[in-house]
Description:
- There is one protein chain.
- The protein has 884 residues and is mainly α.
- The chain is built from 46 helices and 11 strands.
- A 5-stranded parallel sheet has the order 4-5-6-3-7, with helices on both faces. A two-stranded antiparallel sheet has the order 1-2. Strands 8-9 form a two-stranded antiparallel ribbon.
Amino acid sequence: MTVTAGCRDPGAQGGDTIETDNGVSVQSRQPSVPRPTGRRVQRAALLRRLESAAEPLVLLVAPSGFGKTSLLAEWATTTDAQVCWLSCDESDGEPARFWSRLTSSLAARWPVVGSDAALILERPSWDEPELVDALARDLADLPAAAVVIDDAQFAEASQRTLARLAQHLPAHVRLLVASQHNPVFSTSRLRLAGVITELRAADLAFTDVEVEQLLELAGLGREPVDGRRLRSLTEGWPAGLQMAVLAMRAGGDPREVIDALASTTQEASDYLANEVMNRLPSDLAGFLVSICVLDEFDAQLCQALSGQDDARGLLGRVVADDLFIYQVDLAGERFRLHPMFAAFLRARLKSLGGTQFRDAHLRAAAALQERGDRLGAMHHAMAVGDMPLAAAILADSMHTILEFTNAQEARAVARAWLARFGDAAAEANPGQLLEFVFPLASAGQREAEGWLTKVHQAHPTLPPGLDAMAHGTWTAYYNNVGSTGPALEHNRLARQAADAAAGQGPLFPMLAQLTLQEVGTHLLAADLPAAAAALQRGPAPLSVPLVDEIRAPVIQAWVAFLQGDLVSAVAALDLAGRAAAGYDAVAHGIGQIFAHMIQAGIHLERREHQPAANLLAAARAGARINGRPYIQGMVDTWIARLATARGDRAGALASLAQARLALAAPDDRVRAQFALEEFRVAVALAPADAGGLIPRLPANTASRLLQARLHVLQRMWAKAGEILAETEPVTVRERVEWGVLRSLAAQAADLTRAHRYLRTALELAQPHGYLATIIEQGPAIAALLRSLPAGPGLKPYVDELSVRAEAAAASAVGPAGLLPGGLLSDRELEVLRLLASRLTTTEIAGALFVSANTLKSHMKSIYRKLDVSSRADAVREGEARGLI
């Protein structure tokens, strides 16, 4: 028997698995509505108060054991509103973690809610007003709905933002928040504004009538139990009443239980819990103590902690006896203990002395780590102050695959460790601190800068090995916010320190990638000569086979591809592929992401758009898991080039917007490169608009070649010739583009000279199989190719180019195919393609120059025609139908 309320699931939210927009399935720890078992006291008056509350925010504040969870769970079964439920835990003290969990819960309950918020939270920096606006907009589109946040005391850092969210909610959506402590925001101001209604401990205490009902349900209605005295002694505290009833049912004389409760000098909760525990069979009592350190558990975890082969049977007995246990999933396999009872059990475990409490946490850490739940394992390691274990959990993947299994999880683990141990470690163990700062730096997170500054203040002069580690972490940070100058300087200092540390002991494994970090910085600024020179200088001071044999050759292949040397690029990629056979594949590793991009780029050069799209989608999914913003930006830039090749200007500009958003502090060189990519889109798809972008362009060869191409398209031959005459192409691609543009600019005045330029360019391009680079320089290329006298060695290549050029000139994008429910219009196709981006709906509306309401209408039409109910489903269906 229990005094708490059982419930049905109000809408089947909170499943075990949530699928993200890119199709990656991640384990969800969001529980559904708790489901106590057994009969319970119905609290009709309180349920009516909850149901009739007109304010958008309902706040329940009372100490543990006052039935907040039970009341809200019972209300969730009786209300007509659709309900989403989130139970907070200690990890929610970090705002990004809390809002990510809440957004995932909302999306699991209502697929149309939370996609914009999730995108905002993925960014290296995000702002709370933007997040609140996105959630409020989505919730406003729902019918009568309620969001329940239980145990909100764990999310104090997010409570003010929750209050702001409540103030933005429409009348038909409510936020119900339960906490053991007063919130950090002012309730009086919200009360005066008509925003909040409150239920406190006095409201939640059992009445005399409810105590009598409780005794009746427990089968004690005919016993000589003084209900009024029992209520007076417990002050109506539901948990105290529950434990008293359990003690009586277990064989205790009712009068003795009440008398003991009145005379004991111990806390009532300790006394009553002891009464309950002392009357349990020894095997069941021992089982409960052994699993009490777990926040949530199933039979497998219980077996790992208790060592009992019959853990499933013992757990079943705990459930059957209603021993302060909640079911937290729909399948009835995962549970949690009431926080008050769990606290009592943990105190009892500590009282046993020795290492039993510590050993229980370490067993929990091992079991969770084996499941891949590094964050859960980290919490248990920190609960007993085991800093080496906490460090080992995160370092496990960094030291083996030189990646994080999941960047978002790594950041959560790092933040949890830093919050607990960071300040002390800055003084006592800077090396360990830097290992935990590195995941944040690699994601461009601003707090990394603060921790690195603390290390410098505590240790102005570090030993060479630690100095290399510190500068390498600074390099990662500046790379991933887009600040190329500081990144290169810290990379130089890191290499210098690593050289000085040679032979003095092991170095941080990530330092093996210093050369690749430098190359990446040069690529951000589109400085290909500097990137190639960095590769030629040789490996980083630390040699690691994974880097030397796989990642370095792949990056070398990428640089060769960008230079236009496709033959060398393919050879380097093949070399890395053969070496990779000896290693476990890491789908989100740097090597795999760039391998996908090289292959996609070659398909784009061959004008094979669908294979390129598939590879870039895989690269984007890998980049999101990898978590490095500068890599995400590079992938999005090439997705923009794919969209340009397909004639999708809005999609190209949206992908470029994503690339810019990935970097929190891009410097002038990086911003100039984004301007150049935007100019590339305009030249290809909107030449009339391109001229206005020229003042923002960098002064490099790629920029001059694109400007020459624009003048060729505008038939301004002399102007194009002037630019080309002042341009010194260096790479294979630049020389081919230069020759083709030179021929197009010269053909009207001197066809023989034009043929000479074109022939030289084609002889250089032929070994690499160039198609797009030649064909897409302008429609006049088809006629020039037809007229070109070519020898036998060049003629097959010229013939193929001629056929492809004429086909490109004649081709046009046709209308969408017939779909269930109607036909997707051109605008709807455009919107659908943008929905596949990482832009919020507000940003998509801006890219299309339409209002938010207009975009919403297009989205509803798309969902109806594709027979889907969410953005993610629309994108998946569009991809399956070949529309994206």
